[in-house]
Amino acid sequence: MDTTTTTIGIIMSASISLITMSVGALLWADSRYVSAETFDEAQASTHREFSNIRKNDLEDKIFELQLLEAPSNLDKAKLDRYQRQLDELIRRD
Q1: How many CB atoms lie within 10 A of CB 64?
Q2: CA distance 84 to 59
Q3: Which of 26, 41, 63, 79 has its CA 20 to 30 A from that of 11?
Q4: Distance (Å, whole) CA 77 – CA 90
Q5: Cβ neighbour number for residue 82 with a 10 Å cutoff
Q6: What is the pLDDT of residues 57-86, one digit of tens each?
């Protein structure tokens, strides 16, 4: 009876250890992957940041072109293009 009790105890202990390790591994693996909602939020935040950087860049280029005393036709075309792009970015946000 003593050997049977020890064997059952070892089997139960091994089973509990195996279950505990399995649950731990599953929780660890689950924590490694980002949820879809978190990914969407991060993607939207990144898009906003890129949009803000682009707006600032366009505003700087427009400012530089507006400071020219005698802008060429190319400068005027660039100014119009940059202004349209800036307006489009502002409209999207």
Answers
A1: 13
A2: 11
A3: 26
A4: 20
A5: 19
A6: 999 999 999 999 999 999 999 999 999 999
